[in-house]
Design the sequence.
């Protein structure tokens, strides 16, 4: 039970638990990141504090179910292309892919992870119906208020009395109460998010094909035209799908992807044997001055400084 504060997004996302993540920040890193963890025998909670525009892609890990919701701040997330409002949460099953796009506004969020589906299983182990397909669901204001209140109470105790849950009896009581609230929410019929627009039927396929192409060409330069061709759609349709799913246009997504890839390559490169130019050209970057400006804007340092570290 501890709170960690981070000065960089790299360290922050490396410490996020209960999902396999790929994350990109889309604006300068201001170092406003923190995580608080609370683990019981079969249910774990992680609270996060973040600010800045970002995209987080990933998949649920094996062995359990994850639930994600924003607890404080102006609604700042879209999940799988659906805007998360004050009544929304995400349910993520093992291996299930998801995408969270965050606005720049400061926000506190919470993720819960139940081993063996403990959060969604009844007493006899039968899976409790969620009332809608896995992903974004909306619940009643009474239900979400009760869950947020309980999470806030646990959060406050952890912050003020870190040793309060050291005893097995305290952990058992808190876990039982939390599981009961979650099962009550997921055991009732929920309102599935409606799909806006006519092209929404093809959007998952567009995104899936695009991401498969990106993953197949990891470490390589990728253009918007290549993505559109891989998805089998026009660049305009691709742009609409990306804007709806990630909150940014494909060109901005690819730009930030390249910036992050270059940064990772520079961090592991040997400065005695590698130059910044070597790394940039490997990723199809030839406008060195412009790239350096974008890099400094996002990471508050020049590529040469990252390489020297």
Sequence:
């Amino acid at each position: 039970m501890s709170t960690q504060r981070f000065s960089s997004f790299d360290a922050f996302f490396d410490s996020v638990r209960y999902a396999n993540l790929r994350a990109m920040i889309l604006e300068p890193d201001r170092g406003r990141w923190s995580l608080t963890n609370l683990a019981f025998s079969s249910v774990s909670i992680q609270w996060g504090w973040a600010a800045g525009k970002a995209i987080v892609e990933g998949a649920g890990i094996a062995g359990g179910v994850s639930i994600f919701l924003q607890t404080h701040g102006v609604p700042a997330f879209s999940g799988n292309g659906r805007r998360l409002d004050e009544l929304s949460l995400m349910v993520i099953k093992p291996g299930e892919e998801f995408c969270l796009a965050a606005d720049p506004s400061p926000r506190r969020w919470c993720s819960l992870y139940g081993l063996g589906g403990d959060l969604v299983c009844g007493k006899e182990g039968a899976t409790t119906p969620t009332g809608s397909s896995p992903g974004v669901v909306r619940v009643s204001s009474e239900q979400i208020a009760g869950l947020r209140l309980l999470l806030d109470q646990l959060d406050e105790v952890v912050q003020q009395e870190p040793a309060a849950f050291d005893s097995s009896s305290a952990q058992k009581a808190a876990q039982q109460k939390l599981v009961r609230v979650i099962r009550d929410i997921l055991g009732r019929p929920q309102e599935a998010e409606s799909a806006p627009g006519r092209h929404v039927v093809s959007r998952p396929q567009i995104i899936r094909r695009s991401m498969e192409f990106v993953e197949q060409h990891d470490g390589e330069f990728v253009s918007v035209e290549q993505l559109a061709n891989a998805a089998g759609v026009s660049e305009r349709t691709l742009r609409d799908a990306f804007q709806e799913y990630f909150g940014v246009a494909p060109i901005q997504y690819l730009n930030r992807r390249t910036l992050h890839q270059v940064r990772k390559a520079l961090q592991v490169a040997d400065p005695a044997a590698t130059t910044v130019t070597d790394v940039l050209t490997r990723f199809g970057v030839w406008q060195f001055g412009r790239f350096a400006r974008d890099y400094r804007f996002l990471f508050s340092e020049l590529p040469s400084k990252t390489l020297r570290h």
